[in-house]
Design a protein that fits this description.
The protein is mainly alpha-helical. Helix content is 48%, strand content 2%. Helix 16 packs across helix 17. The longest helix has 34 residues.
Length: 400
């Protein structure tokens, strides 16, 4: 009798221990392998004839009861290690209302090396997620992205606010859901620093602007950036900015384009590397075109400047080196370039333009000499006239 009671007590102790271990395993996540059997008698939930069942990409066939056999029911956000127990599985996805597959796989290594990897937890962005996940109807991948992207403003409110004044948000607000949002440019779980490498900025823009991107890659700027990895070459955001992107077809942007070009072409340190004079901006502003455009700008930013700006002569995304056979400002092509605004321009019409050069004894010597002649003549006339007036006054005073 005593031996029977002792054996029974030992059996109860073993069973209690197994149940305790089982309950702890359930609380901490999926069971260890191997794991205690007590409390997990429904073996076929996870096991089949060929061993452990593979988890389907969309969890079809796994009801809530199955989830609870591995996941602890909680109304609190799940910790990252618990999220990645499922979301680290390649191929994990969810079928949406329109039949699209929403990828649910997150590469732990990719996320860890992103700018958010050491700063954010899954629950910082997915704060309303509980285990097991509550049923959620998602019509399409795009609508899911649109619903989620405003989470970025929790940390990046200043940049988010800037986007509200951009042409992208204007398109988005008008009903175009394909207009770029934060995650289209920066990514979601793989966010990296935008300028590493620098060429990635223009590659990001090319996702929507493919034709323009190819034109840019064939330009002197694009070849320098991609071919030579030249960090001095302008990328899309140098001209269009990143968050406050304006409509480039407006009168205001046309006027601003001169300042945009001058940001680099007035930089003596940068231009010296490539043998380009920084006087190109000054010479433009001093000639008829530049002065007329400046006068238009003073009258209002919404007035279209009819006179030529930099891009009218040099191009926009297709800018070539000034000595390239394809350049619109090379001598062979210059007449055709002038005829865009001056239809009656003849072959000698461009001869009146100094090509941004300052007159000198070697370049346009006649213009240089005439300029110095007037520099000497005008002061001589003014001084002589002043002396004549003073002498006449002195004579009038002394004769009284």
């Amino acid at each position: 009798m005593i031996k029977a009671l002792t054996g029974f007590a030992l059996l109860v102790a073993i069973t209690a221990t197994a149940l305790f271990i089982s309950s702890r395993a359930e609380a901490d996540g999926p069971p260890l392998i191997p794991h205690p059997v007590a409390g997990r008698e429904q073996c076929l939930t996870c096991h089949g004839e060929q061993g452990i069942k593979p988890v389907p990409a969309n969890h079809v066939g796994f009801d809530q009861g199955t989830c609870l056999s591995c996941h602890l029911l909680s109304t609190k956000p799940a910790p990252d290690n618990e999220c990645l127990q499922c979301h680290a599985q390649p191929g994990l996805s969810k079928t949406l209302g329109n039949g699209e597959q929403l990828p649910l796989h997150v590469d732990p290594q990719v996320f860890a090396t992103s700018v958010h990897g050491s700063k954010l937890l899954c629950s910082d962005c997915h704060s309303n997620t509980t285990l097991p996940h509550l049923p959620r109807e998602i019509p399409s991948r795009r609508e899911y992205s649109v619903a989620q992207y405003e989470l970025c403003k929790r940390c990046h409110f200043a940049n988010y606010t800037k986007t509200l004044d951009s042409i992208h948000f204007e398109m988005f607000a008008s009903g175009n859901l394909d207009a770029p949002i934060c995650t289209d440019c920066h990514g979601a779980h793989d966010v990296t620093r935008p300028a590493q490498p620098r060429a990635s900025i223009s590659q990001t823009c090319s996702q929507c602007h493919q034709e323009i991107s190819q034109t840019y890659l064939d330009s002197v700027h694009g070849k320098a950036l991609v071919g030579d990895n030249n960090y001095d070459a302008p990328v899309c955001t140098d001209c269009h900015t990143s968050h406050t992107i304006e409509d480039p077809r407006t009168a205001a942007f046309r006027l601003e384009s001169i300042d945009i070009c001058s940001n680099c072409h007035s930089n003596e340190a940068v231009m010296k590397k490539y043998g380009i004079s920084t006087n190109v901006v000054k010479s433009y502003l001093n000639d008829f075109h530049g002065r007329a455009v400046a006068l238009t700008g003073k009258q209002g930013k919404d007035i279209w400047a009819k006179e030529a700006v930099c891009t009218d002569c040099h191009g926009v995304h297709d800018i070539q080196s000034a000595d390239s056979p394809e350049s619109p400002v090379i001598k062979a092509n210059l007449v055709a370039t002038c005829q865009q605004c001056h239809p009656g321009a003849t072959d000698n019409f461009p001869g009146s333009w100094l090509s941004h050069y300052q007159p000198s004894l070697t370049k346009a010597p006649m213009v240089f000499l005439v300029g110095w002649f007037y520099r000497l003549l005008i002061p001589f006339i003014l001084v002589g006239l002043s002396v004549h007036i003073l002498l006449d006054l002195w004579r009038a005073i002394t004769n009284r």
